[in-house]
């Protein structure tokens, strides 16, 4: 980590162009395609552009990519793509759990809401769906406290965020072939 006195701004170095978003993988620095911040266009967007993007101001990215990248360690060639397999399993389980949450809210079943929202919260956090996981926690607490007032309103927002998470993970999964 560089201390402020060792950064380019402090030693007179002025970059010619902004490098955009960069990550380090397997010891190599590389640019990262950030579909989260450019409306899904698939192009690069640096942090300055992202901060000016009005859509970005309204909603947080559905996936915290730092969490997701830490989840699966580097894999040897030919071992298959573990992350892709985990994401595909998540699609199946999260869809089933969303059905359970929906049925629990519609049926005023606090116990089922608690269990389904708890499981969905944990698995979603594991994959970096931090905002979605937080929304699940709210419903989990409502089920735990057996106070379902307002749960139907939260369900609509949860379904919207679940769709955003799925779309983002599907795009990422397509790059893992």
Describe this structure in words.
This protein folds into 2 domains: 15-58, no CATH class; 60-174, Four Helix Bundle (Hemerythrin (Met), subunit A) (Up-down Bundle), CATH 1.20.120.160. Helices cover 56% and strands 5% of the residues. It is built from 7 helices and 2 strands. The protein has helices at 47-52, 54-58, 65-71, 82-106, 110-126, 130-145, 151-174, and strands at residues 22-25, 28-31. A two-stranded antiparallel sheet has the order 1-2.
Fold blueprint:
Elements: E1 22-25, E2 28-31, H1 47-52, H2 54-58, H3 65-71, H4 82-106, H5 110-126, H6 130-145, H7 151-174
Antiparallel strand pairs: 1-2
Helix pairs in contact: 4-5, 4-7, 5-6, 6-7
How do the helices and strands follow one another from N- to C-terminus? EEHHHHHHH
Number of domain modules: 2
Given as residue ranges, the uncertain stretches (5+ residues, pLDDT < 50) are 1-52
CATH H-level homologous superfamily name of the largest domain? HPT domain
Helix content: 55-70%
Global outline? elongated
Protein structure class = mainly alpha
Number of helices: 7
Average pLDDT confidence is 76
Strand count, sense and barrel status of the largest sheet are: 2 strands, antiparallel
CATH topology of the largest domain: Four Helix Bundle (Hemerythrin (Met), subunit A)
| Name of the CATH architecture of the largest domain | Up-down Bundle
